[in-house]
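My current task is to audit a protein record that another person submitted. Thanks in advance; the entry in question is below:
***
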Amino acid sequence: MNFPLYIAKRYLFSKKKHSAINIISLICGIGVSIGTMALVCVLSVYNGFQDLIGGTFSQFDPDLRISKVKGKVFDTHETDFLSTLDFVDCFTPSLEENAMIKYGESQTLLTIKGVGKDYSKLVHTDSIMRSGNFILSNERGEFGVVGISTAYRLDINIYQPQPITVFAPIHDKNIEISHPENAFNESDIYLTGIYSLEQDEIDGKYIFTSIDAARKMFGYANDECTSIELKLKDKNKLNQVQKIIKEKLGDDFLVENREEQHQDFFRMLKIEKWITFLILTFILFIAVFNVTGSLSMLIIEKKNDINTLKSLGASTKQIKQIFLLEGWLVSAIGAMAGTIIGLLLCFAQQHWHIIKLAGTGDDTSLLTDHYPVSVIPTDLLAIVCTVWILGVVVAWIPTSIIKKI
């Protein structure tokens, strides 16, 4: 049996001469538990929001996107080898360019996104349609689908036979000061539907049309595109497929997964998450530091026991270990209790949505009416290890007085 640990446990759970020591130790343990619980819950909410928003991106974003490192467009024939890869379910070229849109008396700047005929296989377009249908071309001509934010801003009604007018800059034509209008193609697009991803940066940015119509608007060749978007058969092989495609295309191309396509957003969310972690850890350190007071009082109370242990042959190092372990046990038990309580609260929030988002009410424009929660094991490990390390550091401080006793 570990002698210092055995004595430390006896001291921790035994009744002291001065009940204040027991009360202070209990308060320290409760403080550590509350701080640990707060860390578990707050980080899990951050993870929940990341998964929630990432889920809305995933409805729109492909599993992998290929684009040029330098320059805007490339020839689709450079990626013909994709059809030979068994891992690829489908892929489609895409062409994105900014243009001015006019509808009635309203106008705005938007991004025209021309996509191939297989785009509906790549993205579940039916699930994002708010009204109308995702029809971009047929034997009658070329059409468009607009986001709900844009439709609201321009007061668009797809059931009225009024097209939107697109003023598209011709990519290889210089603007003449005397005749600036010659550098733009003007074309009309009739809208067949309104989509909604409940993300204003998407709903208020894109108008979908066929890639042939987009090429014609901006003056691109029939085989040019700004990106190739892919859907994989097995998402678990994403990294493997990404590596294979990178090797075949070389350094001139970017091959990005969904997180890399929105790396600024996910980087910002991670930074906010870990800044919050540091702030709560500092508050937790204050709670853990209270262990120093209770441990110092215990050492003074156990002065006679310390002398007895020394007479029985216990070394100063072993006696230090006794009180070091007791201080650490307070932090460790508090950390475990806080983790368990935090997990129970997260479980309750996941299943019963106890805490609602303030001011939601009947507002259906929000992604959710409650705080989303997602528990990541590595976060729990980081929290527990942090509390345990703080516990060791704080418990080491009062043991330095043992030499003087």
Notes: The mean pLDDT is 89. The CA atoms of residues 95 and 211 lie 6 Å apart. Residues 3-57+265-404 form one domain.
